[in-house]
Write a sequence for this structure.
């Protein structure tokens, strides 16, 4: 594979970071996203996710973050605050996943692009993810051409 082919593959790769303390949900979502040709990264809390993201080269950062709100160690709110303070991470769209019934209160605390209420329909999750990835790809294409 030559260098141009490698760059083209990277330009069209789709990736998602799933952050949730529910191991079964992470496994289920990983399987589904991988079947849709996503590169999938997982973390069981916000701190683990931040540590992972900070060590990644910019070119490997995920196209989308799916973030649970209620987690131990570092919850979705604290992760969101830390993400907003990092210029590299701030540009990555975030979809909040929550079972918290008081969404208005949650949305005031967490800077996200969209939210999904748990339990979630996996087809809806994929549509939402695809919408954000499509916007990202369109932006990349405008910049590249």
């Amino acid at each position: 594979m030559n260098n141009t082919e490698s760059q083209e593959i990277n330009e069209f790769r789709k990736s998602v970071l799933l952050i949730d303390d529910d191991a079964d949900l992470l496994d289920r979502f990983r399987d589904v996203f991988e079947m849709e040709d996503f590169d999938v990264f997982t973390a069981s809390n916000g701190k683990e996710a931040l540590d992972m993201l900070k060590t990644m080269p910019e070119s490997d950062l995920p196209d989308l973050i799916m973030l649970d709100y209620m987690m131990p160690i570092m919850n979705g709110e604290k992760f969101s605050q830390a993400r907003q303070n990092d210029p590299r991470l701030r540009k990555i769209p975030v979809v909040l996943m929550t079972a918290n019934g008081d969404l208005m209160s949650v949305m005031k605390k967490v800077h996200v692009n969209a939210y999904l209420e748990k339990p979630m329909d996996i087809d809806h999750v994929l549509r939402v993810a695809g919408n954000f990835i499509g916007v990202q790809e369109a932006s990349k294409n405008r910049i590249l051409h």
Observations:
- The CA atoms of residues 77 and 105 lie 11 Å apart.
- The first helix runs from residue 3 to 12.
- Confidence is low (pLDDT under 50) at residues 1-10, 135-145.
- The radius of gyration is 15 Å.
